[in-house]
Design brief:
238 residues; mainly alpha; two-stranded antiparallel sheet; 8 helices; 2 strands; 67% helix; 3% strand; disordered C terminus; F0_ATP_A_sf; hydrogen ion transport
């Protein structure tokens, strides 16, 4: 399979995956500054809608007190993976996320972020204690679960994006340019779906780590209308 272009700089060889990953990162950082408070430019309606959708998705999983803390990380994951996936639509370029090294790096970032959020919210004693609950015998199984889900996170995104690009290549070789529009639409939808799935899995892992800091019995999401607060305000029956 074609490995794409490479750049030679100061005796180092920079692969296409590395170059595109850096370009995506710098582009998102520039866009955040351009439409952020320092840029002084009002965001477009589409950006406000995307931010609101990400905010609502995070608020459905984590407690309200943690939403503003978790949203920048999960939102950055969603945007980076979505843009990286869509780069495969550009002629001559390939998606950085079809490289296992990129998806593995993203999975490792999620792995450390999960524990950092948990340690910061609950403290190291309470957070580490939940690995031996309800019995210390389960501690090895908890550790194995942490490792296997990280591996699955990396392989899932890599496999889906690799198979998507190979399927697109095979269809183009067989049908030529007769079906470009449906193929492009399929690529766009699949790229966005894979970004959403990766971000949601990371969000669920972070939410499970933050649950350690919640009082026992308190749900992680927003309070329901039938919460004790709302029911206490109702008039008592005679």
């Amino acid at each position: 399979m074609d490995e794409g272009f490479s750049l030679h700089l100061a005796g180092l060889t920079l692969s296409e995956t590395l170059c595109l990953s850096v370009v995506v990162t710098l582009g998102l950082a520039a866009a955040a500054w351009f439409w952020g408070p320092r840029g002084g430019r009002p965001p477009a309606v589409a950006l406000e809608l995307a931010w609101q959708m990400m905010h609502d998705a995070v608020a459905e999983v984590v407690a309200p007190v943690h939403v503003d803390r978790v949203l920048p990380f999960i939102g950055s994951l969603w945007l980076f993976i979505a843009v990286s996936n869509l780069l495969g639509l550009v002629p001559g370029l390939s998606s950085p996320t079809r490289d296992l090294s990129v998806t593995a790096a993203l999975a490792v970032i999620v792995f450390f972020a999960v524990h950092l959020y948990g340690l910061r919210a609950a403290g190291w004693r309470s957070y580490l204690r939940h690995y031996i609950q309800p019995s210390p015998i389960l501690a090895p199984f908890h550790i194995i679960s942490e490792i296997t889900r990280t591996l699955a996170l990396a392989i899932r995104l890599f496999g889906n994006m690799m198979s998507l690009e190979m399927a697109a290549l095979l269809v183009l070789l067989v049908a030529g340019l007769l079906v470009p529009v449906p193929l492009l639409l399929l690529h766009v939808i699949e790229a966005l779906v894979q970004a959403y799935i990766f971000g949601m899995l990371a969000l669920i892992y972070v939410g499970s780590a933050l649950e350690v800091s919640l009082p026992e019995g308190q749900p992680p999401g927003p309070p329901s209308p039938s919460s004790p607060t709302s029911s206490s305000s109702a008039p008592e029956s005679p």
